[in-house]
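In full, the data:

***
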Amino acid sequence: QMCIRDRLNKAWITSCSQPVPRWKFNCSKANFKKEDYVEMWNAVFSLKKVPIFYLPYMRYPLGRERSTGFLIPSIGYTGRKGMTFSQAFFWAIRDNMDTTIQYDYYSYRGMGGGLEYRYLFPKGTNGQLELYYFKFKQTPEQEELDNASIVRFAHNQTLPANFKLVANIDYQSSYDFLREFDNNFRRAVVSNRGSQIYLSRAWSNFNLNMRASRFDTYSSIINRSVIRQGLPEISFNSNKIKMISPFYFSFTSAFSNWQYGWDFQYENNNQRRSQDLSFSPTLTVPFTAIPWLTLNSSVAANFFYYFKSFAPNTKNVVDEPFFRKDYSVDLELRGPSFYKIFFDSENAPKVKHIIEPILSYRYESPVSESDRIITSYYFFRYHYIKYGLYNSLLVKTEDMPSGREMFSLRLEQNYYLEPDESPLSTVRLKNGEIPRFSDINGYLRFVPTKTIGLDVSAGFNYYFKSFSTLRLSVSAGMPSDPYYLRLSWYKSSSPYYKSSIWSRHQISVYGGAEIPGLPVELTGAIDFNIQEKKLLYSALNCVYHYQCLDFKAEVRMYYFREKPEFQFNISFGLGNIGKTTEFLGGMGF
């Protein structure tokens, strides 16, 4: 196919439609390809008649499709890193893949480079690879630091015979580097590493899952990481298969080879590790003959084979297999369900109010010598009664004739019949007894419209008459709306442990607004630690739309870092050329 170009001398180009363009490029010569691109030599970019910068070569896309080229750079300043400069190059490799290559410069600290590669193939195969490497600037005034690297990878693929492959990697060489350099607040304050690969297949009544994984969770308070590995974990399960009415049969089976422990335990090769096989056939009998009452009952036999065990009355691991067999019984009663329908002025059903109590019972038979079973934490046996109440309002709408849930309230609590082996066996009351009642857990959701929502959850401790957890989330509007708001408040404290290490009290607010009468968009975020009475993070973003130009200014303050850090960044949008976005996070605007 012939490629037709027009050659121009002493030309200028702009995408503005005003008689006096807001911006333009002047160049000594140019090649013009209709609806594709213009390449310019000795290009000078000007706002009105004021020259801003010079480029020896410039390629400007004309079409609406993705185009290869440099993005508009981002320039800024931070108190600890000095002047900053970020420049990205976008490469539209093919219709189904592209990559972005980025260069970051910090005048005080060093420089970094990143690569982001995205791909999409037939039959649902897709993925994204992110690589980043930072080289610290070594000076006599500051201690020598190891360079840092980041690898993030996500992949989904359908394999022959209907197998599905999912792989995820999130690795960074240094938690301290992320905390000091990652501008994504949510990611910077959570120190995790993880990698896993799934292989799964589903048949009409069966499911096969295979996984290899490793997860590291770092605590800055104790400067230690806890690590869990599964190499591999395999499960083969069945759905409920109808036998002779009203009986249904199902089973679960698994093989697990896992390791668990602190990083120093891994260094000394004395982390906990175990391999086990399990098989649990289950017989279920549902009862739904009464419309307002549902009863599900099931009986399961549980067989576990552990390849290693603890020596009797010790925590020494020995190469002695341990075989466990027990059974469990589950009963769940829903109802009687009460409801009332409310009608509108035209006598059409509009709102349905439903109240439904629930009652369930679980019994697991005793396991002899259960203290010989190797687990990550503790071995628990469940024998409890759970009771609760569900309350909901359904509103009939045109797009959802069956009703949209506008309001729901759920309350539930467990009563442990044998608390000595329950999850509550690790805590004590003031008199030294083990509690029998779990916290009363409540959840409320109110969604009056599609864009407004309120979620509240709480845990109330029966013995100490105090809330162990409180969570509030409010959302109003969408980022595409003129106004939107996200508010999240969370408080937790263990009534059984008075140390502040078990407590958390924090609030975060994120929102945006368009200024009436002005071509200005504002977006801001605040995170505040109420328990310690100090700000963790704050940011404000302002975008000014100047006809065919977008100017962006951003101010951020990171209080949670070793030393509080102030950041200021500016960039602008120019017609068909996108802005450079940070590999290391940002507010996500």
